[in-house]
């Protein structure tokens, strides 16, 4: 008696099976898009920082410690820890102002100190005594760049004159927009972003893989960011 042959690959991949697979994929993608859209409408409930308050705080630091970045940073930390005493059940702050790492993104290079990092917000000090220039990136978060020392210039396609931001000014970059920017020698800023922060990380890390190959900096950036995000998640701060 002849043995029956096992079903061939062609019989397994019948048109009905293929259609079912694509329908399941389409349904999953649809649910994913709807979920993302819904989360985007409620993300503001997880915001803790207030942009006008941060702008006022940056301006106070500029007046209190002119041309003194270290004094400004301590002034900012002191006020933030008064407003949000640590440890807190609403937000976690990194008060170790000696924890700086290089940051290469969009062709620009500087150093940053991460004060806060969570899923929907981050607050950092960024700058360089040497000056730098690059692309802002195209992000899913609104970005508020508060100049503390020095100047930042910016430009977007179609503009025939540059934008100029001086100490005490804030350069607001709405999500979904991009510019070329230049930070002059000795420029430092307090940068606040609100939106979906993890989606900004590929831009912040890409230069490590395509240019610098600075593995120690990559390690410390990921370590500090993950540590701060986890600390905030554990207290319910998304």
TrEMBL record:
InterPro entries xrefs: ERG2_sigma1_rcpt-like
Protein's pathway: Steroid metabolism; ergosterol biosynthesis
Main location: endoplasmic reticulum
An example Gene Ontology CC term for this record: endoplasmic reticulum membrane
Name of the protein: C-8 sterol isomerase
Subcellular location: Endoplasmic reticulum membrane
EC id: 5.-.-.-
Family under the similarity heading: Belongs to the ERG2 family.
GO BP terms: ergosterol biosynthetic process
PANTHER family: SIGMA 1-TYPE OPIOID RECEPTOR-RELATED, SIGMA NON-OPIOID INTRACELLULAR RECEPTOR 1
Protein source organism: Paxillus involutus ATCC 200175
Enzyme class: isomerase
Record keywords, A-Z: Endoplasmic reticulum, Membrane, Transmembrane, Transmembrane helix
Pfam family, one: ERG2_Sigma1R
């Amino acid at each position: 008696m002849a043995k029956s042959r096992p079903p061939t690959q062609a019989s397994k991949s019948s048109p009905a099976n293929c259609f079912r697979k694509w329908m399941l994929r389409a349904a999953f993608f649809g649910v994913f898009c709807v979920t993302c859209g819904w989360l985007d409408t409620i993300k503001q409930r997880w915001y803790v920082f207030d942009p006008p308050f941060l702008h006022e705080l940056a301006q106070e630091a500029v007046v209190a410690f002119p041309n003194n970045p270290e004094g400004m940073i301590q002034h900012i930390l002191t006020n933030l820890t008064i407003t949000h005493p640590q440890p807190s059940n609403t937000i976690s702050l990194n008060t170790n102002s000696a924890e700086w790492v290089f940051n290469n993104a969009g062709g620009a290079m500087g150093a940053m100190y991460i004060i806060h990092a969570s899923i929907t917000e981050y607050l950092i000090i960024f700058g360089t005594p040497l000056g730098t220039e690059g692309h802002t990136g195209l992000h899913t978060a609104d970005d508020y760049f508060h100049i503390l020392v020095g100047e930042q210039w910016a430009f977007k396609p179609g503009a025939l004159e540059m934008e100029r931001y001086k100490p005490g000014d804030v350069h607001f970059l709405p999500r979904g927009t991009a510019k070329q920017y230049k930070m002059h020698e000795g420029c430092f800023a307090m940068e606040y972003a609100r939106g979906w922060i993890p989606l900004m990380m590929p831009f912040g890390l890409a230069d490590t893989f395509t240019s610098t190959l600075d593995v120690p900096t990559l390690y410390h950036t990921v370590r500090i960011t993950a540590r701060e995000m986890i600390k905030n998640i554990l207290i319910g701060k998304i």
